[in-house]
């Protein structure tokens, strides 16, 4: 056991990261310092237990310096499954500082009977697939991905974001709506029907918060272009909050 109060840094801002911070604070109370790091991509993050910071670290060296500054004992990467850059930095920074690290990875969605999934390796591949599959597209990928679809001048897009973008969407024909999950299947089906959507483009993010659109597309028989999830990072992984807490308890005993 460390001589000072054990310190846990959680990388995230995801629903899992928020739940983990709450669970760790409830489980360990004043016996552990819990710090959550948010990327700052949403304007109004939800309430988070423990301490929090907002903004990037400046790469691997910046994260390693921060781990040293707070005397971190444990690092749990609960960032989005597609946040490959911060996950890479977490792996390298944890190795550089000898900080025990765990990746909290939400379980991926599994195709069910009735699903019409078309897997795409990247955004460019997804954009190439669209004309053959649909004309009215629900684009559910996040702000930074939208530019990859700008060349599709004849496609109509419904784009949902958490926060309004600072600049106009780089799409010739599009409607923007704002919303923060979770979204249930019934409301997602109503949205798809209201806008006469015939194709869903999304990432294989997994989790329950945005699964409603997958269920709604299945119910309506719509094709789905599914962006392939990056390979998991090396090292320890967990799929549930309870498993992450078990890992923490084990590490604290060593």
Strand and helix layout:
Layout: E1 7-12, H1 15-28, E2 33-38, E3 51-54, H2 59-69, E4 74-77, H3 84-97, E5 101-104, E6 116-120, H4 123-133, E7 136-140, E8 156-161, E9 174-178, H5 185-194, E10 199-203, H6 212-220, E11 223-227, E12 236-238, H7 241-253
Parallel strand pairs: 1-2, 1-4, 2-3, 4-5, 5-12, 6-11, 7-8, 7-10, 8-9, 10-11
Helix pairs in contact: 2-3, 5-6
Describe this structure in words.
The chain is elongated and about 60 Å long. By secondary structure, the chain is α/β, with parallel strands linked by helices. The chain starts with 6 loop residues before the first strand and ends with a helix. Helix content is about 30%, strand content about 25%. The model has no long low-confidence stretch (mean pLDDT about 90). Strands 3-2-1-4-5-12 form a 6-stranded parallel sheet, sandwiched between helices. It has a 6-stranded parallel sheet with strand order 6-11-10-7-8-9, sandwiched between helices. The relative contact order is 0.16. The chain has 2 domains: about 5-105 and about 230-254, NAD(P)-binding Rossmann-like Domain (Rossmann fold), CATH 3.40.50; about 115-225, NAD(P)-binding Rossmann-like Domain (Rossmann fold), CATH 3.40.50.720. The chain contains 7 helices and 12 strands.
